[in-house]
Amino acid sequence: MKQITISADLQVYDSVDELPKDVQHLMQQAIEARESSYSPYSQFSVGAAISLENGEVITGSNQENASYPAGLCAERTAIFYAGAKYPGVKMLKMALSARSRNHTVEVPTPPCGSCRQAIAEYEVKQKQPIEIYFMGEKGKVVKANSISDLLPLIFDNSYL
Ligand code: THU
């Protein structure tokens, strides 16, 4: 038996103000996208903004459903739309912000497991990492340089 240790480097910014200017702007777009969240069941609004190599920004928000599993997270709403609208264009950065209508979200809110898997698919497809910045409603922002820092042992098409 051999033990292996998996580690990841993440950067933590004290607030949005500490981010590079372009990321501040992208985060602002994620915050605005949050407003279009349809979340009557969880009261939890998530916004995502993805910057593309061609200068476009694609945004998305979580869309819930009375049949709960039929709903979709903000990250996948945005990334699937980016993939559908600009199939050959690389995704550079993703900004995420979450807010609850029940309490103040001050803890950076990372993408869920299914969204990590979806983001991984596009990183593999474009052969280039996507920077991911996530936060709650206010407070600290966490940056991952690649989805592989949030999802070790990625299952990708090399296993098929
Ligand atoms: N949600 C997201 O949009 N992204 C995530 O990564 C975590 C969860 C949404 C799904 C659901 O509408 C609500 O947040 C509560 O789980």
Quick summary:
The chain is α+β, with helices and mostly antiparallel strands and 160 residues long.
Describe this entry's structure for a reader:
There is one protein chain. This protein has about 160 residues and is of the alpha+beta class. It has a single domain, classed as 3-Layer(aba) Sandwich (Cytidine Deaminase, domain 2), CATH 3.40.140.10. The chain contains three helices and six strands; from the N terminus they run E-H-E-E-H-E-H-E-E. A hairpin with a 4-residue loop joins strand 2 (about 45-50) and strand 3. Helix 2 (about 75-85) runs parallel beside helix 3. The protein is globular and about 45 Å long. The mean pLDDT is about 100. The chain binds tetrahydrodeoxyuridine. The site of tetrahydrodeoxyuridine has 13 residues, from strand 2 and helix 2.
Q: Got a strand count?
A: 6
CATH architecture: 3-Layer(aba) Sandwich
Strand percentage? 15-25%
Give the C-alpha Rg.
16 Å
Question: Number of folding domains?
Answer: 1
Helicity range of the residues? 25-40%
> What structural category arises from helix and sheet content?
alpha+beta
* Largest sheet geometry: 6 strands, mixed
Q: CATH homologous superfamily name?
A: Cytidine Deaminase, domain 2
CATH topology: Cytidine Deaminase, domain 2
Order of strands, widest sheet:
1-6-5-4-2-3
If you average the pLDDT, what whole number results?
Answer: 98
- Shape verdict: globular
Distance, first to last CA: 27 Å
List ligands, each type once: tetrahydrodeoxyuridine
